[in-house]
Structure prediction request, 1022 residues.
Amino acid sequence: MNKAITIDGKTLPFEDGQTIMDAALTAGVYIPRLCHNPELKPHGSCKLCVVNANGRNVTSCTMPASDGMVVTNNTPELNEDRKALVQMLFVEGNHICPACEASGNCQLQAAGYYLRMESPHFTHFYPPRRVDASHPDIFLDLNRCILCELCVRASRDIDKKNVFGISGRGIDSHLVVNSESGRLGDTNMAVTDKAAHICPTGAILIKRKGYTIPIGKRTFDQKTLSEFHLGQVKQPEPDGE
Amino acid sequence: MPPENFSNIEQQVASLCEAHDCEPHRLLQILIQVQEIYRFIPPEAITSIARHLNLPRVSVEGAAGFYSFLSLEPAGNYRVLFSDNVTDQMVGNQELMRQFCSKLWLEPGKVSEDRLVSAAFTSCTGMCDHGPAALVNGQPLTNLTSDRIDLIADLILGKSPVSNWPSALFEVNDNIRKTGMLLDKPFVSGNAIGAVLARGPDATLAEIKLSRLRGRGGAGYATAEKWTGCRNAPGSMRYIVCNADEGEPGTFKDRVLLNSYADLVFEGMTVGARLLGCAKGLLYLRGEYLFLLEKLEGILKRRREDGLLGHNIFGETGFDFDIEIHVGAGAYICGEESALIESLEGKRGRPRNRPPYPATHGYLDQPTVVNNVETFACAAIIAFRGGKWFGKIGTWQSSGSKILSISGDCARPGIYEYPFGTSVQEILDDCGVDEAYAVQVGGPSGVLISWKELDRRISFEDLPTAGAFTIFKRGRDILQAVRNYADFFAHESCGFCTPCRVGTQLQKKIVDKIANGHGTASDLEELKHLGHLMKTMSHCGLGHTAPNPVLDMLEKFPGAYEQKLRNLSFEPAFDLDAALETARRITGRDDPAAHLP
Amino acid sequence: MNNQARISKVKIATCSLAGCFGCHTSLLDIDERLFDLLGMVEFDRSPFTDIKHCGPCDIGIVEGGVSNAENARVLREFRDNCKVLVAIGPCAITGNVPALRNNIDLWDCFQEVYLYDPGTEGNQIPNDPELPLPFDKVYPIYEVVKVDYFLNGCPPSPDAIWNFLTDLIEGRKPEIDYKLLRYD
Ligand SMILES: Cc1cc2nc3c(=O)[nH]c(=O)nc-3n(C[C@H](O)[C@H](O)[C@H](O)COP(=O)(O)O)c2cc1C
Ligand code: SF4
Ligand code: SF4
Ligand code: SF4
Ligand code: FES
Prediction:
């Protein structure tokens, strides 16, 4: 007999080794997420994908599915908590959407829409953050970094370059790049790297491409975060580290 | 102690790395040595270490930036870190810090212009029975007084090497006040190992099971079960790890165990090794206890000479086991077992995703057992005296004894060993407390109990504790204590997950707001909201427990904050008038329109 | 229109703090619905009237963040007088573009504006009490007073404003259609 879990009452089959998130994605069931991308190894830091499995909150993008697991996901309570996490991400950085090239293509913003965030609610931190324009083709604006480490993983596991990493601790955690000068221009990053195109927000931008698609015609002008994420398909696993 | 000359960084680093066989998982140990030499981690050193260990530079920078005892900016030839536990605050560490800074013209957190000295606060250094305490270049300064601060400032101005400072400044005593089954009798090294060899590993594991021993590090997981899981897991190698990170504020019993009962602890690890069939042991010593390192290395050396470690232990062919000590560098989260393993591997102390658990995929992805210092001491005693003997003490769900680190408002702070099931009142009577108002049991991640709960008992089923027992007498400001704990969690969050990284900061801001007299009823609701988010959405135990002191205060100590609340539904998140101060200064204005009441 | 209807008209006040009047302009862009609106409401203090101080109102609509002491005074007046307070546009909700200055030292801002700009040679930093004194940072209004509703969009579209206002005026909790929820 095939193994299965239920999510919000719906039965979903899964294969050994799949996470709750994998099983949901395969079946077209949406679990909100920000730091997970099916092309990369799960990370589990944003916590948007937390679901309740057999009475306990677990991180669905890293928790292996197990036979008979009863999962609740799309509940008002969990979505309220997810919205609060998005609000935390907003106040912790400096997000000025009207002045951001990524607006309309940004998954953080789209998560806000999806979860009906009407204001960031919490006290803003307005942290001083670095902007790095040293690379000829890529612009790095840490004001908008949500520490999802997608770029870190893409550069390490797909591009095999280790251009990005995280330093600092706690609220001082921040993205660093692989050069003694600390400048992106002094790394071997190329605009063709996977890492250049994986940032869910406007923290990594390709230069001279900002407004090729006008506002109003951008990704999340056309679809919701849920439709967008369910459309992302799993690529063949990148071979180990 | 002039900092080394910087022209030879490359050479210095090369020889350091070679001394560690250019092993990537020695990275933290190498960084600690670089910090000792240069008093910070120069960027050139990061590049050079990365090259020698064949690691990406970002990984080295990432590790160096994680630990608070490593500094990426020059931190002075003398780096003084004042312990900032609530017990240090009770005895005036803030004033001492101010005195020190004004004497040396320092700004807290900044290095002096001549790069001679810097001063800052650090989380509890495990000297709660010796407060106020501090660290100077990693060495503990204890029982600080105003006179001692003057003396220390003079020694620094006179550029006297720390090794020449009067030894009285560094005195650390065990302060053992009450002994029980663990601390009673001196332990004869080899007794437990001999017993295991006579009885055999299976029968010894059965004794541990019979003893009903549960972990002493906090979570209280059944030790026999953990060891069996690891034993049955497939792997080319097994590791046994002693968790001596002891970062929970108010806890210092592992310090005393390692200072005076290290043989018992090492013996417990060796017993474990025999049961698991593993050949490598690691002890993770918190950076604050660096002063114990030499002594511990000496004991390990002696045990090797005595045939209690190394090859063919106790003459048993094929019984090979040794223990290596890794030093931490100021990170409470590294006490969490999977973060500890990451740190042992030389990385940032970031808790792993689980499953898999360390028992199957731990250090270097091999089956690994992580236990608290005291758990190993118990295991050694059980191996020697049997599980039945051990299980007779304590309660059914909590067998044996618990060593408590008692500090705060009491006549006799120190180490007390009690059978599980002892009531808080009995403990308070022993250590000399007249009027207890509150006790923080198990440190900030534990439970804050009020004077109404003194009949509660130390045990896994009632008041679980890793050992901290901090007493507050009537008249103490509980809000100040909670503020200290909120600061602690905000400082120690590893930053990996959103709810804890941001939530601990927001929690701290609101507690500060209330303490400063600007809180309202809506702020209390916000604290509960944040508490719920951290408890239910966080990645690890730090985030899950970070709201505990705040929530306990809200529930049990309304008097601590109610008078401070404004009788309004809302107050701004910041002080409006203060936020105009910079502009007033720049414009030189002081007219009524330049103020907001 | 008889007296009865006049009395039951909803009183609205609006203001622009650290904003660009874009939200107000968008309000005017509801075009012919403006007449319907004026049939339902009466404006108190607002850039559309010359009333200087906000009297008791049903709805206060605030555009812009809190950048200086004057902004804070006006905002408090609104909160004290309006039953329902609405933050309109990202400047009021997050600080937005004016908050770009939040990581620039105030002293540097002053120098740039009053001392270094071409044409300001020989000038001094003014200390006239008539000038609003800036805060260290620009704040969203909800960090200064309690806010009841948020209307997003830079500016919110005329449709979003219209739907929102009619809901409020007719005593419903405003529902913002998914398509109209925008932060840009
Ligand atoms: C934030 C955090 C800090 C911890 N610190 C320690 C510590 O300092 N010492 C310790 O033994 N266990 C600590 N623990 C518990 C360990 O994760 C682990 O459960 C323990 O070492 C297991 O040993 P035991 O079974 O012998 O108790 C900590 C846990 C968390 C979540
Ligand atoms: S990164 Fe996204 S959320 Fe942040 S400013 Fe840009 S569009 Fe807005
Ligand atoms: S730069 Fe983008 S991809 Fe990288 S960690 Fe930050 S938000 Fe994630
Ligand atoms: S709960 Fe806190 S300490 Fe634990 S992983 Fe998350 S951020 Fe790190
Ligand atoms: S998507 Fe699972 S934690 Fe971020």
Q: What stands out?
A: The CA atoms of residues 51 and 78 of chain A lie 7 Å apart. The domain at 3-74 of chain A is CATH 3.10.20.740 (Ubiquitin-like (UB roll)).
